[in-house]
Amino acid sequence: MKTYKKHDFPVEKIRRFLEPGPIVLVSSRWKDETNIMTMGWHTVLEFSPSLVGCMITGSNHSFELIRKSKECVINIPTVELLDTAVAIGNCTGRNTDKFEKFGLTKESADNVQAPLIKECFANLECKLVDTRILNKYNFFIFEVLKAHAPLVPKYPKTFHYTGDGVFMISGEHINKRRKFKSQNL
Amino acid sequence: MKTYKKHDFPVEKIRRFLEPGPIVLVSSRWKDETNIMTMGWHTVLEFSPSLVGCMITGSNHSFELIRKSKECVINIPTVELLDTAVAIGNCTGRNTDKFEKFGLTKESADNVQAPLIKECFANLECKLVDTRILNKYNFFIFEVLKAHAPLVPKYPKTFHYTGDGVFMISGEHINKRRKFKSQNL
Q: Is the ipTM of this complex over 0.85?
């Protein structure tokens, strides 16, 4: 499977990967147990500190692993992993090691116990920093402590969910920089 | 400018338009003043009631219009409106009528005072339902009361922001429905 040579990526710039709205794979660990879930309901909340909000359904096995460990890794998969992401989202980690089942490789993170998924384009090490609307909306607010991404390509080919089993694949990139005021870039 | 013949669209299915993560145009009204802002930081939070969370920077002129009126319309623009959306995001509504300036047409909503933008593909009439993390994160939680969208095309060609003035244009759609468990669709 395709892998990437990754470098430290500035956490205040992770909008490059998250703001376009791709499906992500969230890896977690609590004690000896690891898991992976497929997630589409997330948003950037702040540049610095680098904050991300995620809605994770309470019935997901990962929900409790993340709530208890107070951390996770948000991994950005590219289109080569589309079928894998669908399969991950359609089975439970309650009795299955999804890393083993789907041939994915755990790599150690620097700041969290949850493993990075080596085969993903980018990996964001996240710490849970706010739970005030967790009970009502299952909404976690994470701070991204460290990000890993390759230098090239600059933009991963991602997949985005529309419901009903249909995904949109990311298309071309267009630069409109000269039409921006510098403070708005 | 291109317009669409729209119908009522089920509010519990608006993930089709929002979950892929497009840039949206948010229209608002407070007393006699209307405005439009360009927004990229949003996420679906629930199917029913149909909830959407949005981070809106406090320095935006629209912030106060939305906070005071407790409503807005989330409009989904297609790629024909990319330059318009960039221009809307790079000027303030403090002294400008953006509908007039950018040749956009106000249409009356059914459930809110804020106007729909006729030229957008879809329009979501939203009511502010939770402000408990508004002060800390500028995060608004809206309920979508009514949605308007055309029957065809099923999927709009949207644009998605990556920062630095660069947009990703939505690409092809792939159906993986047969790989899903029915309850996960």
A: yes
